[in-house]
Amino acid sequence: MIRSVLGALGYVWALPNTLLGLLLGVLSFQRPRLDRGVVVFDRAPRGFLWAFGKSRWGAITLGHVVLATRRLEGRLRDHELTHVRQHARLGPLFLPSYLALHVFTGYRKNPFETAAMRSEGD
How many whole angstroms separate alpha carbon 84 and alpha carbon 64? Predict the structure, then answer.
């Protein structure tokens, strides 16, 4: 009971980021699918994801939405689901925290990324 209440609160707390993710997902011109309560746009790099695919990143997580330039599975899935949990904990504070840390530490040393990298393959 407590776990389901906390899970529901995590969805509500991350809602601003999730709405941004859904907007970008619509701009990817793809049909989403659900994976463990997460909305996933990973069918093809079209629309927003086409432009995103030109970068070195294969996916981005915004709240409870994952946008990926390739099928979300394996290590990439584990990595992005860690970011979903981070969004659920920090809600609207996640993006400014992530970006601030990214400016000072870069991608590889960003604590959010190191936690996600450690989760790959678990």
Answer: 6
pLDDT at 54: 67
Name the DSSP letter for residue 93.
G
CA 122/CA 66 separation, integer angstroms: 19
> Residue 69: helix, strand or coil by DSSP?
coil
- Provide the residue range defining the domain that includes 27: 2-119
Cα-Cα end-to-end distance for the chain: 26
Q: What is the pTM of this model?
A: 0.92
Total domain count for the chain?
Answer: 1
Region for 38 from its dihedrals, namely left if φ exceeds 0, alpha if ψ lies in -120 to 50, beta otherwise:
beta
